[in-house]
């Protein structure tokens, strides 16, 4: 198959199933769907942080998996013990029952792990959103430096204003002293 043919097939697929829907169709966990995606067994499209799968590919994979499961069950029947030319139905039933129990236990373990993974992914998503809303440390330091510079400018301006007020006070005291001197001189001159 040429790359052009593969591109044409990819373009013709419609991606309308979520991972959860696909897992129900295949009767597997969503974690298994993720493994299929990583291996390239099934293709996907990502839209708005959601993964969509092709229903056609899922159906094809389902038929392939169903064929494998049938072959496995046939091999189980072929490998059961034979007693004098006949299949021991009791042993095969017990063996199948044990296998079903083991598979059910493994499914429970997988579901528990999937629940843990889901919770971890949820926590990661929450932390990522918190991280996106925080101020980066270099930005904070830069803002802090700017505020410090502005504060120093304001302090310098206040110091200059205080010095000017002090000069004005001294001038006013000198003017007042001169005024008092003239008033006293006028009184002395007027009464002498």
Tell me about this structure.
By secondary structure, the chain is mainly alpha-helical. Among the domains are: 1-79, Multidrug-efflux Transporter Regulator, Chain: A, Domain 2; 146-192. The protein has 6 helices and 5 strands, in the order αβααββαββαα. The strands form 2 sheets. A 3-stranded antiparallel sheet has the order 1-3-2. A hairpin with a 2-residue loop joins strand 2 and strand 3. Helix 2 (19-26) crosses helix 3 (30-39). The longest helix is centred in the C-terminal third of the chain and has 55 residues, at 137-191. The radius of gyration is 43 Å and the shape is rod-shaped. Residues 79-87 have low confidence and may be disordered.
Task: Please sum up the structure shown.
By secondary structure, the protein is mainly α. The protein has helices at 3-12, 19-26, 30-39, 55-78, 89-133, 137-191, and strands at residues 15-18, 44-47, 50-54, 82-83, 86-87.
What's the arrangement of secondary structure elements?
Elements: H1 3-12, E1 15-18, H2 19-26, H3 30-39, E2 44-47, E3 50-54, H4 55-78, E4 82-83, E5 86-87, H5 89-133, H6 137-191
Antiparallel strand pairs: 1-3, 2-3, 4-5
Helix pairs in contact: 2-3
The name CATH uses for the topology of the domain at 1-79 is: Multidrug-efflux Transporter Regulator, Chain: A, Domain 2
Beta strand count: 5
CATH class of the domain at 1-79: Mainly Alpha
Radius of gyration: 43 Å
Number of helices: 6
Helix/strand-derived class?
mainly alpha
- The low-pLDDT segments are 79-87
SSE string, helix = H, strand = E? Answer: HEHHEEHEEHH
Strand content: 5-15%
Shape: rod-shaped
Main sheet attributes: strand count, strand direction, barrel closure: 3 strands, antiparallel
Question: Which CATH architecture of the domain at 1-79?
Answer: Orthogonal Bundle
Strand order of the largest sheet: 1-3-2
Mean pLDDT across the residues is 79
Fraction in helix = over 70%
Distance between the termini: 130 Å
